[in-house]
Automatic annotation (TrEMBL):
<dbReference type="GO" id="GO:0043916">
    <property type="term" value="F:DNA-7-methylguanine glycosylase activity"/>
</dbReference>
<dbReference type="GO" id="GO:0008725">
    <property type="term" value="F:DNA-3-methyladenine glycosylase activity"/>
</dbReference>
<dbReference type="GO" id="GO:0032131">
    <property type="term" value="F:alkylated DNA binding"/>
</dbReference>
<dbReference type="InterPro" id="IPR051912">
    <property type="entry name" value="Alkylbase_DNA_Glycosylase/TA"/>
</dbReference>
<dbReference type="GO" id="GO:0032993">
    <property type="term" value="C:protein-DNA complex"/>
</dbReference>
<keyword id="KW-0234">DNA repair</keyword>
<dbReference type="InterPro" id="IPR011257">
    <property type="entry name" value="DNA_glycosylase"/>
</dbReference>
<keyword id="KW-0227">DNA damage</keyword>
<dbReference type="GO" id="GO:0006285">
    <property type="term" value="P:base-excision repair, AP site formation"/>
</dbReference>
<protein>
    <submittedName>
        <fullName>3-methyladenine DNA glycosylase</fullName>
    </submittedName>
</protein>
<dbReference type="GO" id="GO:0006307">
    <property type="term" value="P:DNA alkylation repair"/>
</dbReference>
<dbReference type="GO" id="GO:0005737">
    <property type="term" value="C:cytoplasm"/>
</dbReference>
């Protein structure tokens, strides 16, 4: 029998938008929304793999059902997953566009999975490549090296590869998945110390990100991407991103910015700079459709 619980948030909650950062592209094998409005998530926990099925009932309460060895941990984490541990009380909007986005989206909160490894693998895969490339590699690695999702989850769902599975991948299979040497080296190095890296979710903030960056191949951008999901870090801006400086720049000062310029514009929002970025993203702010685009490469053909 599956484990289950019900939970009612005490705050406005935009269910889909809060969980959106956890989905890595279309066809993500670890996150799936089905027609009735249920989200399915798979995870590696301290107790083992698990599947979480989560849906909002008509009365606003959430029904969570979980399967697998990690079921209890996943159920315990439901409130934080839905933003209960997120505190935006000190946030002040210094720009009209952010103030308007906050007013229009009171249910936007930052999710916290409590799990570093499952956020680390796709973050490393997304380094210096297009989303199309990274999401393809993520799907293939999950399909080839991840376990089937426990319970009656959709057939395509897989649990992300464990550190042991990542260390077992032969070179030719990395190549087949389109993962270059730099990213695979970072993943293998992280897999060797994965247990220690989970402590970053308890340290949180800059200290947690600093721990992640001790792994060769994990820099500021990757640590921020992990922190945003593993502990809902409100200040972890993805410096080094191809798109975000332009989004922030055009939204707040009317022109493209580099990382230094973005840091200066977002400085008044510290220690909640990432929250400001999330409001801009939620408002649908995008960079102008001109200029060079990052090319899509296929490492399997090299």
């Amino acid at each position: 029998m599956p484990d289950s619980r019900r939970w009612r948030p005490s705050y406005a909650l935009d269910f889909r938008r809060v969980l959106a950062p956890l989905r890595r592209g279309p066809g993500d094998p670890a996150v799936h929304w089905d027609a009735p409005g249920r989200v399915w998530l798979t995870a590696n926990t301290a107790d083992g793999p698990g599947t979480l099925g989560l849906r909002r009932l008509a009365d606003g309460e959430f029904e969570a059902v979980a399967w697998g060895a990690g079921a209890a941990i996943l159920l315990d984490g439901v409130p934080s997953l839905l933003g209960a541990s997120d505190d935006d009380s000190g946030f002040v909007a210094h720009h009209d566009v952010i103030a308007d986005a906050r007013h229009r989206r009171p249910g936007l909160r930052l999710p916290s999975t409590g799990r570093v490894w499952d956020a680390l693998v796709p973050a490393v895969l997304e380094q210096k490549v297009t989303g199309i490339e990274a999401h393809r590699s993520w799907r293939e690695l999950c399909r080839w090296f991840g376990e089937p999702a426990p319970g009656p989850a959709p057939a395509q769902l897989r649990v992300p590869p464990t550190p042991t599975a990542i260390r077992s991948i032969p070179d030719w299979k990395w190549h087949q998945a389109g993962v270059d040497l730099k990213r695979r080296t970072a993943l293998v190095a992280a897999a060797g110390v994965a247990h220690q890296l989970e402590r970053a979710a308890s340290l949180r903030g800059a200290e947690g990100r600093a721990l992640l960056r001790k792994v060769p191949g994990i820099g500021v951008w990757t640590a921020a991407e992990i922190a945003q999901r593993a502990w809902g870090d409100p200040d972890a801006v993805s410096f080094g991103d191809f798109h975000i400086p332009s989004i922030v720049g055009y939204a707040l000062v009317g022109r493209a910015l580099d990382d230094q310029g973005m840091a200066e514009v977002l400085a008044p929002y510290a220690p909640q700079r990432q929250r400001a970025v999330r409001y801009l993203e939620a408002a649908g702010v995008t960079r102008p459709r001109f200029g060079p685009r990052m090319p899509i490469r296929d490492y399997r053909a090299l």
